TrEMBL record:
Belongs to the bacterial solute-binding protein ModA family. Pfam families: SBP_bac_11. One of its GO terms (molecular function) is metal ion binding. GO terms for biological process: molybdate ion transport. This is Molybdate transport system substrate-binding protein. Molybdate binds at residues 82, 213. InterPro entries: ModA, ModA/WtpA. Keywords: Metal-binding, Molybdenum, Signal.
Length: 272
């Protein structure tokens, strides 16, 4: 028994040193950091949630990445056509940011009492005609989409900002009936219309001018006469049911300041 007690007494200083070293390591010289290099206090900040038009995915993802890098606040995002986003917002009753493809969807959210502060336009949605590389149907102007035999792939005319704008143009030119006879199918996003054309499933379609930016080797673009084109503003707004109003306002300010240059990098027009 005496030998065991002596043994325990000898171990006390060693145990004490181990505990002390562990405390010092945990304390460090400041707040521990996460993998991104942000202090833990910043890493623990609540994330924002944004509803964003599918056609804006690439520039918005870059904005969200830079904002998280700057502030430590992550921006989680639902990308979909603008009509579907309105339904999601109404069903969920939560979220912080809304960035659809055009102002009419902002107006609908405002009428539903969902909209708070807004900034923009950050960029412009510019309808353009796209064709498979080589333009096999020899489309030169929007009126050519009404010619018999042209096979058209179109974004949904109700759920997407681009489809809605396209049909306003057709109505203005009084060619809607002829164009509708040529439509093979409607797609839920403009990007899907572009993808189908790149796969050879049609002669032409209308989508956002920026869609051609990264697919120049597979698509040709015919710009629409500005005298008949309908160019939509792209805004960004805070939602009234946001539980992080100040953080959402800070994000809006960041989008207003940094957004136009980022959208321009992805082929969007930023001046009317």
């Amino acid at each position: 028994m005496y030998n065991q007690l002596a043994k325990n007494i000898k171990l006390w200083p060693i145990s004490f040193m181990v505990i002390l070293l562990a405390i010092l390591l945990l304390a460090g010289c400041g707040a521990p950091e996460n993998r991104s290099g942000q202090p833990a206090a910043e890493a623990d900040k609540a994330s924002l949630f944004a509803y964003v038009g599918a056609g804006l995915k690439e520039p918005f993802s870059e904005i969200a990445r830079l904002y998280e890098q700057k502030t430590g606040v992550k921006v989680e995002t639902s990308y979909n056509n603008s009509g579907a986003l309105l339904n999601q917002m109404e069903t969920a009753g939560k979220g912080d940011i809304f960035m659809p493809g055009s102002m009419p969807y902002i107006q609908k959210a405002e009428q539903a009492g969902q909209l708070g502060e807004m900034v923009g336009p950050i960029a412009y949605h510019t309808p353009a005609i796209i064709t498979p590389k080589g333009n096999p149907a020899q489309i030169s102007q929007i009126q050519d989409l009404a010619k018999p035999g042209v096979k058209i792939i179109m974004p949904d005319k109700e759920a997407t900002a681009m489809g809605k704008a396209a049909f306003e143009i057709f109505d203005k030119l009084e060619i809607t009936k002829q164009v509708e006879e040529n439509i093979l199918t409607y797609t839920e996003t403009p990007m899907k219309a572009a993808e189908m054309l790149m796969m050879g499933q049609g002669n032409a379609g209308i989508t956002e001018l920026s869609m051609v930016y990264k697919n120049r080797d597979k698509l040709d673009v015919i710009e629409i006469d500005p005298a008949v084109n309908i160019i939509e503003e792209i805004p960004c707004a805070m939602l009234t049911f946001s539980t992080q109003q100040e953080q959402a306002k800070d994000f809006l300010k960041f989008v207003e300041e940094e957004g136009p240059a980022i959208f321009a990098q992805y082929g969007f027009k930023t001046e009317a």
